[in-house]
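Milestone M4 deliverable, item 7.
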Amino acid sequence: MGVIITLCNPKGGTAKTSTAVNLCCGLKAVNKKVLLVDFDPQRSASVALGYEYFDSENNISSSVLDGVPIESCIVPYTKGGFDLSLASDDLIAIPAALRERLNAHEALADALAPVKNKYDYIIVDTPATLNMITITAICASDYLIIPVSCDIFSVDSMMGLIKKYHELKENGLTHSSILGILRTMYDKLLPLASTISSELESSFNDLLFKTKITYNPRISESSSAAVPVLLYDRTSLGSQEYLSFTGEVLKKLKVLEGAA
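Output delivered:
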């Protein structure tokens, strides 16, 4: 049975998209069948992989808003060996379009349902906001990963997200669990980053991934080259850290899914 994992943090600049695309590559490297859903009106993941909005007749907004079968909204990302459902700026209409829809929080889950069991993992990249787009992604998910850069604004945004997650959980709107918190953009030379990292370890020890994604120019370069760093430079520190992170994700899921 397929597992849906959403990456979310309402703060921009937390490496959500870099983490999403490289997690997909890492999972493919161990022969998992993967679908990446770009659920961001800014199309960050689509752009990061070199796609224009017109590269697919349909995209994820076509499925969520117009009922187009999800199978028609998927393209292969041949460089990485996984599939992709592109985004469009039409996604910005979701909060208004779903306002009157019955069970609106299930819109993304309903769209993905026909293909969920055709993939081992469906990875959802979300925008830097906590509106209905992100909420429907949380409600569609089995697990959440929260990337957090080691700065006070990112941590504050993460706390707001966790609060909203617990509200959704208490109201029975999501069955998801928080798989973990990933420290990103980490620079050990910055005293504040080290302090915040230590505070996160104290407060979220069980949820915190041991791997930290260090600030690395090769990751930025790979985005400019429109490929994940795992394909751009497999020997880079960024690639090594994302492979380590992927291993942690799989280990956690094995424990959690085995206990289910």
